[in-house]
Amino acid sequence: MPRNRLTVLDQIAASDKVRKKIIDAASALYARKGFGATSIQEISETANVALPVTYHYVKKKSEIMRLIMEDMLNIFQESLVKEIEGVVDPVEKLAIAIILYLRVLDRQREKVLLFYQKSSSLDRSSKRRIMALEVQVSEIFSNIINEGIAQGVFKAVDIDLMAYNIVMLSQMWILKHWHFKNRLTLDKYIDTQLVTIMDALGATY
To answer: Which residues of 132-167 are buried (b: 16+ CB within 10 A; e: fewer)?
Structure first.
């Protein structure tokens, strides 16, 4: 007779799927009920994941924010590795990275907004982990920019600052979407920002 619910051992073995179920359930509950009104037990029940397994991933609710950030970073990195394989031109490589990052953010819009709304209430260790993850995203852009400068394709700039400019310009699509949605599609926003970024780097796009 088929089982509707996996055993605890099954759920631990299927770690990636279970982790995503927990993230999605928590994000939906936080958006609907609020961070403070949501319990880990509710997250477990909504995700249809055994409570001991849920606690295996999250000992406290604030850790969900870390999981959300890790999930977005993993999606971005995995997509980027595939898309830039064999790409030599730093301009093309940077454009691909920016496009992918913006599309990941757009697909995860509710989670990004939730992260910004609640990150200030996180404990110190969770904040440190999330900041470290954000730096990892920035470093992806830093490495490409550094490569372009070394090849003479990009002009010399403050690499760290430029990388963070890209991160913030990308996140602005989510944070200020209420304004931009009235006159820009995602594709138009991407094209416009790519021209701005490449111009700042002294490259033609």
So the answer is: ebeeebbebbbbbbbebbeeebbeebebeebbbbbb
Question: pTM for the full model?
Answer: 0.77
Amino acid of residue 42: E
Report all structural domains of the chain as residue ranges with CATH numbers, in order of start: 1-59 (1.10.10.60), 61-200 (1.10.357.10)
Amino acid symbol at 193: Q
Helix (H) or strand (E) holding 48: none
Write the DSSP assignment of 149-182 as a string of letters. HHTTSS----HHHHHHHHHHHHHHHHHTHHHHTT
How many CB atoms within 10 Å of residue 196? 14
Look at the chain and count its residues.
205
User: pLDDT tens-digit profile of 93-122?
Assistant: 999 999 999 998 898 887 778 777 766 667
The Cα angle at residue 23 between residues 43 and 134, in degrees rounded to 5: 135
Distance CA 171, CA 166 (A): 9
